[in-house]
Amino acid sequence: MSEGRRRVPNRHVSALDHDGEKSHNGAPVTALSNADLEACRAILAQGSKSFAFASRALPARMRDPVAAFYAFCRVSDDAVDESATPRDALARLSERVDAAAAGRPESDPVDRALAWLMGAHALPRVPVDALLEGYLWDAEGRSYETLSETMDYCARVASSVGVAMTALMGVRDAETLARAADLGVAMQLTNIARDVGQDARIGRLYVPRAWLREEGVDPDGFLGAPRYVPGVGRATRRLLDHAAVLYARASDGIGRLPRDCRIAIRGAGRIYEDIGREIRARDLDSVGGRAFTSTARKAWLLSTAVASELRKVERTTPGDGPLAETAFLVNACAVRGPAERGST
């Protein structure tokens, strides 16, 4: 499951922002206190509504790792995005991750949670580093000229989460990780399509600039005065069309996940894909307003995921490899050998 990155004006105080003492002696962290877990759950509850809603359908054994990973994503995002010197903040975060990976997390719930994920759940390091790089790209105002460049960004801020979550489920075969990465890109393209106006008003543009120029829209002029014009709508539709292809690809991999995780992941995909439906229903205007799905609609979509799982026939033939933009994640995290097919 991959929520993808969206800025939320909500400050989470964490030792990720300052120097702290180490809280362990270097041995792998194999347990996390109830107090630390509660702190992580609180961050999840205050964050993404769609992510939190879908996570309720996960089995009990996955809920705490999910909350812990989300908490790290949230506070590290804030640490880079709100720093006057993003590269310094990233270097500081890398030190914190190094300490957690070595079993010597600093004295903060999120640090200890990350060490627990790495020690007890074998969370790979590569998606964590990729996520931090994506945060830096935001803080430094990176420009995206082509769809591939936009998807490079999606790989870092969303596919990284999907690959990490799949690894936390205990699944590390390349094909399943590739489909998880597809779902991350699809969700993030949907986020981008939904937030065209909101992002532009804070000086960010993820819609490929080349697409806008093809539509007669000057990207810098749009950033200076965001307003809906048909050309922006057509570029938004192209994002959703690409996302739709990736949602379909990702669906093939869900049957390879542990049985007790499939409904949550299928439901999360359907909730995000439904945001695209709402955008289309608004005549592709994501500048004048922001599409959303109601809680009742989310519940219904989750129920359709349950029904689909009951009648789902697992695909056993090989699928496509990873996208070029996500291959570095899949290749770094995959365990070679027979695919691991969950059955719990």
Describe the structure.
This protein is mainly α and 344 residues long. It folds into two domains: 27-122, Farnesyl Diphosphate Synthase (Orthogonal Bundle), CATH 1.10.600.10; 124-336, Orthogonal Bundle (Farnesyl Diphosphate Synthase), CATH 1.10.600.10. Helix content is 63%, strand content 0%. α1 (34-46) crosses α5 and α8 runs parallel beside α13. The radius of gyration is 19 Å and the shape is globular. It starts with 33 loop residues before the first helix and ends in an 11-residue tail after the last helix. The model is unreliable at 7-21 and 338-344 (pLDDT under 50).
How is the CATH topology of the largest domain named?
Farnesyl Diphosphate Synthase
Shape label:
globular
Top-tier CATH class of the largest domain: Mainly Alpha
Regarding quaternary structure, how should these chains be classified? single chain
CATH 4th-level superfamily of the largest domain: Farnesyl Diphosphate Synthase
- CA radius of gyration: 19 Å
Just name the CATH architecture of the largest domain.
Answer: Orthogonal Bundle
- List the total number of helices: 15
Order of helices and strands: HHHHHHHHHHHHHHH
| Sheet with most strands | none
Name the beta content range: under 5%
Helix content: 55-70%
How many strand elements?
0
Distance between the termini: 18 Å
Q: Look at the helices and sheets and give the structural class.
A: mainly alpha
- What value does the average pLDDT take? 88
Are there runs of 5+ residues with pLDDT below 50, and where?
7-21, 338-344
Number of domains: 2
